[in-house]
Write a structure and sequence with these properties.
Distance between the termini: 80 Å
Largest sheet: 4 strands, mixed
Number of strands: 10
CATH class of the largest domain: Mainly Beta
Shape: elongated
Number of domains: 2
């Protein structure tokens, strides 16, 4: 109890001797509260659906699906697949939900068909990839590229996908011809 009384007396003595310091401290605290809080910790504004970044299109399948196929996804890579090492989690920017087995066409939008939304940017390789394993693996040997996105009809090299900050890029169509698959990237089985 004696320590408590001593503490109170010391604090009162401080306020009595240093009143200007107290006024300055209270003024700074008030200014901080008044000008520093803004809107506090309110969430960021929600971007309207028609302004969110993304892409959409149609995947067309030609031919008969192999019975061994267990998974089919649209996969987007930031950088080209020039080696087996480029097929890694750091290079993958987007993986769609699974495309149903045996369909002839699949309309998609990255806004509602992915595990993680795609960020605005430029992407070098957009593919429909299929696997004969039921698990989602990052092993290049487990995947076959069934179709590629080609920009402006140039089928000599994969097209670049540019996802803008606002809005949905449409027409990212991919043709998967099971009888005439595209060139496979390095590292396949």
């Amino acid at each position: 109890m004696r320590n408590f009384i001593a503490t109170v007396v010391t604090k009162l003595h401080y306020f009595y001797i240093h009143p200007m310091k107290i006024v300055i401290q209270i003024s700074l605290l008030f200014a901080l509260l008044l000008f520093g809080c803004g809107k506090g910790i309110e969430p960021a504004p929600v971007q309207p659906e028609n302004e969110k970044p993304g892409f959409s299109g149609k995947v067309t399948f030609i031919g008969t699906w192999a019975d061994s196929i267990k998974r089919t996804h649209i996969v987007v890579f930031k950088n080209p697949i020039n080696s087996a090492g480029d097929f890694n989690a750091f290079n993958i920017a987007y993986v769609s939900y699974e495309i149903p087995f045996g369909v002839n066409e699949f309309n998609y939008s990255s806004l509602d068909s992915s595990y993680v939304p795609i960020a605005p940017g430029e992407y070098s390789y957009v593919a429909v990839a299929q696997s004969s394993t039921p698990q989602l693996l990052l092993d290049r040997k487990a995947w076959i590229v069934a179709g590629l996105y080609y920009a402006l009809g140039d089928t000599t090299k994969p097209g670049k996908l540019i996802v803008n900050q606002f809005g949905l890029k449409t027409g990212v169509d991919i043709r998967c011809d099971f009888n005439n698959p595209p060139p496979q990237p390095p590292g396949g089985g």
